[in-house]
Specification:
Elements (H helix, E strand, L loop, with lengths): L3 H33 L3 H31 L7 H19 L7 H27 L7 H11 L1
């Protein structure tokens, strides 16, 4: 059983995640261009990716701990930082050269695929949760009883 407020919250979460993923996809377009060029920009881009990865993991841990201590919704946003860390790490892998067949283009494609899979799984989970029947809130039940009398 679910209230209207909970359904609205789930829908808002899906829309917010879509917006974040869309912004990430646009940023990834620019990163792809920067990584494809053979110039000093590529070196600077790898440094920026390294800094973003480190900052996102630190911010993610901070948000998780702070959200748990204060019992607020800040811990939910730590997942965005985790996603940013994973994407930055995947984009940085070709620079490390650990996997020889994994080049810059494959790294960008992998991040796009992971973003799409995340959104598909989140959409399925949200759709399943939204199928639960609605429960009237206590205020509306009281008003309904008063109207009957």
């Amino acid at each position: 059983m679910m209230t209207r407020e909970k359904k609205e919250q789930l829908t808002n979460r899906l829309v917010l995640n879509f917006g974040i993923l869309l912004a990430g996809a646009l940023i990834l377009l620019y990163l792809n261009s920067a990584l494809s060029s053979n110039s000093m920009i590529t070196t600077v881009t790898y440094w920026i990716l390294l800094v973003v990865a480190i900052l996102s993991i630190l911010l993610g841990i901070f948000l998780l701990v702070w959200g748990i201590k204060k019992k607020n919704d800040a811990k939910n946003y730590s997942a965005v930082c985790l996603g940013t860390f994973v994407a930055s790490f995947i984009l940085y892998l070709p620079k490390l050269g650990w996997i020889h067949a994994f080049n810059r283009g494959k790294a960008v494609a992998t991040v796009y695929i992971l973003m799409a899979l995340y959104f598909i799984v989140l959409s399925i989970i949200t759709a399943i949760q939204l199928r639960k029947p609605l429960v009237k809130s206590a205020d509306k039940k009281i008003v309904h009883k008063k109207k009957r009398k």
